[in-house]
Amino acid sequence: MALQHPLAAPAGDGTCPAPEACGTLARFRQQLAELERQVASDSLTGLWNRMHFDRLLEAELDRSRRYRQPVSLVLFDIDHFKQVNDACGHQAGDAVLRELALVAHAALRASDALFRWGGEEFAVLAPSTGHRGAHRLAEALRLRVADTLFPAVGRLTISAGVAEHLDAESGNDWFRRADAMLYSAKNAGRNRALADARGNSDAWADAQGPAALHLAWQEGYECGEPVIDAEHRELFELANALIDASLAAADRDGAAARAFERLLEHAAAHFAHEEALLARRGFAQLDAHRRAHAGLLGRAQALRQAWRDGAAGLGAIVEFLAGDLVARHLFKADREFFFLFANESQPTWRESCRSFPLEQRGGPPPLKKGEQGLLPPTSREPAPCGSAPGGAGADQPRVK
Question: Would you kindly state where each structural domain of the chain is located, as residue ranges?
């Protein structure tokens, strides 16, 4: 008989023989979930903390190696932050860190995970992203911060270091490379992002073997809408997992069948998310796009049945994934709505993650106004350094 966690939900039809006891257990489960969230989160900013980074690291590196998808690390910190604390006080410094968490979270993609590393230093774990894409990400973040007026102190800058993971490299060595690039950025004059131009992505691009059948995600495939881009990347990963399982298994009712099922489930959920986003944007071709989605799902289900019956092989699967799903749909039909997201800044986490599962977002959203003393932007207290927007000293130069 399988053992259950003592706080697990009751098995069976969900009815409880002792409602009072079940109510107590439900409260305990909620408290446990809240404690786990608190342990994984930074109390000042609400971002994931370093402990949670360590928990996620090995799983992310394992996924990178298994699917041959690059993963990059971005480290950044505030230039001359000590002077902020010395000149304006630690309360102002804390307010800057909370505001920076909001700015950074809004600038990143839904798939990126943002952490407060300690002090004024932050880290971004960027899956399915090589060193070139991560460098562009860090540069976009740097520009967003430089363009932000921080109510407590005025203008600030950040420096960033980027490193893509290398095969067989330990997590500590990977971090040290990113940290070395951060300090190179500091020594080069600050307010810049520098990247170590090495990584698995270049080596894997030259590799031969079964991986040659894989669908290779390119950063140029992104439309700019974080939820859609993250789900498209996951489609590629699940498609590659299906190809690998089909190559490895002679049995069509085992791992390969489960991989096919996961791909179909994700595709159906993604199509629903995409259609909802496009409906909110008033996409004129939405009805045709819905029909295209329905047609893809119908063909995928028919292919799954033919494959189970032995009437279709791996070649048919690859042809459907690379031809129907990618070449004709993602590259052609989906590009018809790219213009909807081309001329705007990245959506805030509230907009882009409204219906996205928490575990697939870039961590918990930063603390909102009223939490941990963060004031609403329309009613902030006078800035300690006299640099509140519109007030005395509003045009003072940024803190050096």
Answer: 36-201, 214-365
